Amino acid sequence: PPPSDVLQRGLSPTSHLDGGGSTAPMESAPQLGTPPCSPPSKPPAVRDDFQFILCEGCQQESPSLKLLTCLHTFCLDCLSENKPIRQCPVCRTAIPQASGIPDMDNLLFTNLQARLNTYKKISDSGGLSCSRCRREVAVVWCPECEEFLCSKCFEDHQWFFKKRSHEARRVEDLRAESAHRFLEDTKKSCNLFCSSPGHANQGHISSIYCNKCEKALCCSCALLDSQHAPFCDILSETQRRQVELGTMSQELKQKRSGFEATYAALQDEAARLEQAQREMRELIRQRVEQLVRLIRQEEEELLGLVEAQQEQGQRDLARELQHVEGVLRRMEAGERLVEKMSLYATEQEVMDMQPFIRDSLKELQWLQPPVAGDRAQPKNFAECRARLQAL
């Protein structure tokens, strides 16, 4: 039957005539004529679930997200405001680039923003327009072409791409899905182009990975250039990199308990120091008030001595607290990024970002929490007590 009749009956066109009059297989289409069993429910708001893809400074979407070595993510605007400081605004880790702008783009979060915006169009709009004719209401979405299509344009699409596997889906079905399910389903395998000079621009698709030069290659380069060896397929390499990141993340989780214990001990020590300071101030005031005017000058000297004794200890504790807090924030950012890479990253994103993330996680693995015994103990106010006894 004609394609229009097929679509109205909810069937998929299965063949077409080639030049010799014989039939050739054609990719199956979604059943456009079959209504859903029940009206789709409105998906819940997705903003709170995907706060992690926003800039950690301004909490806004941005097409220019940068990944710092501490694994926090900021947009170019926030980093430009932070240039004189050249530190991460969250954990205060130094930014090694002289410009204050990191080189690594957070491709995962940027691409997730684009895919989420597509989902919002599907869930928020009552009538999406066809991306091609701009006139009719879209009934399907092709994730490969990233286009919304009406029935007529969908027929043309299926005929034109009959040799490929573009699995278009009904807009109504997508509207009933959650954002999480939509992102998981659209985590498609993208084409990796050969890394040889000139091949990427010519569209040479790569499915081979050279372990020696750590690059993706096309079949021609792999066969003709004897310098490339040994080989593995791209899927195996991306899976290996995901596993490597997952293993490092698990090891950091185990080490994190040590930093958390140190952080808690530092907080307790700071509280004890503050309590000791309050108690000593009260004791000084009680003793000095007994002497009234005759020893007012002595009172001021004793208070100043207490402050001087505690000032250095407070500064040291503040620095250690700040350092440990920064390490904990970096670990949290690393765990979160590895988790989102595992859930949503494409092969291209893994290939581009994994070495950078791995180096950052290795740096964290070398860190050790400060040993409590190495810190200077707070003063016991012996000098103050001696002077009070003398008074």
In short:
With 391 residues, this protein is mainly α. It has 11 helices and 12 strands. Helices cover 50% and strands 8% of the residues.
Outline the structure in words:
This protein has 391 residues and is mainly alpha-helical. Helix content is 50%, strand content 8%. The chain has helices at residues 3-8, 76-81, 107-124, 151-160, 171-175, 179-185, 219-224, 234-291, 296-344, 347-366, 382-390, and strands at 15-17, 23-25, 65-67, 73-75, 140-142, 147-149, 169-170, 192-193, 205-206, 208-210, 215-217, 231-233. Strands 6-5-7 form a 3-stranded antiparallel β-sheet. A 3-stranded antiparallel β-sheet has the order 11-10-12. A two-stranded antiparallel ribbon has the order 1-2. Helix 8 (234-291) packs parallel to helix 10 (347-366). It is elongated and about 105 Å long. Residues 249-308 form a coiled coil. This is PML protein. InterPro entries: PML-like_CC, TRIM45/56/19-like, Znf_B-box, Znf_RING, Znf_RING/FYVE/PHD, Znf_RING_CS.
Structural class: mainly alpha
The number of helical segments is: 11
User: Which strand-content bin applies to the residues?
Assistant: 5-15%
Which consecutive residue ranges, at least 5 long each, have pLDDT under 50?
Answer: 1-46
Mean pLDDT across the residues is 75
Distance between the termini: 111 Å
Dominant shape: elongated
Order of helices and strands: HEEEEHHEEHEHHEEEEHEHHHH
Number of strands: 12
Helix content: 40-55%
Major beta sheet summary: 3 strands, antiparallel
Spatial sequence of strands, sheet with the most strands? 6-5-7
Q: Report the radius of gyration as a whole number of Å.
A: 32 Å
